[in-house]
Amino acid sequence: MGNCAVVVHLIRHEKTKANVEGKYLGWTDESIVYQKADCLVPIRAKDVYGSDLKRCRETARLYFPDARYHPFFGLRELNFGDFEMKTYEDLKEDARYRRWIDDPGKATPPNGESFAEFEKRVLDCFRQIVAGSGEYVFVVHGGVIRLLLAALYQKQNFRELMVEHRKVYTLHWDDFRSMKGGEACNRLSVAPITVNGNL
Asked: In the β-sheet with 47-51, what is the strand arrangement from edge to edge?
């Protein structure tokens, strides 16, 4: 890595019960299913940044047991409001839900957060943390990673992106000035995380 380069690793938290059951999980503070396992993560970190919710804290402890964890409210998942902890089957007949999934940029979950609010919150927090050249590790939510990839990697469409558990999504910039100036990253790489245990 060059002296002025920026490398950002994005990791989705381990699955929770709600993830396994296909529920919308935003601000509900649910623990991960597997708390103990042998993990082979293809990067090392002294500091890890992420959401203040349990599932990210616990995943960071599982993947990087010796690192300091820095929690941020700004890196939380979207607030799904009245759709929280419900499945597609629960919501499919709800006209408000249909409007939202058809165009999440214009419709907002009742009592939830608009996409514009979510985007501003996450990007503002990300830019606060990544304030210079170096290597950064984030353990965050699927929606947060999708948003960051859409905003920072070739301006992709948020709705078309899929983000998996147990993968490291790494964004590379050759220098901090280009990143700060809003340029897309030079390249994206994806590497697996291997987890051994009673899984």
From this structure: 68-72, 47-51, 134-140, 6-12, 167-173, 187-192
Q: What is the pLDDT of residues 114-170, one digit of tens each?
A: 999 999 999 999 999 999 999 999 999 999 999 999 999 866 677 778 899 999 999
Residue partners of 131: CB distance under 8 A and separation at least 6: none
- Using the predicted structure, report yes or no on whether residue 1 has a pLDDT greater than 60: no
Residue type, 171: L
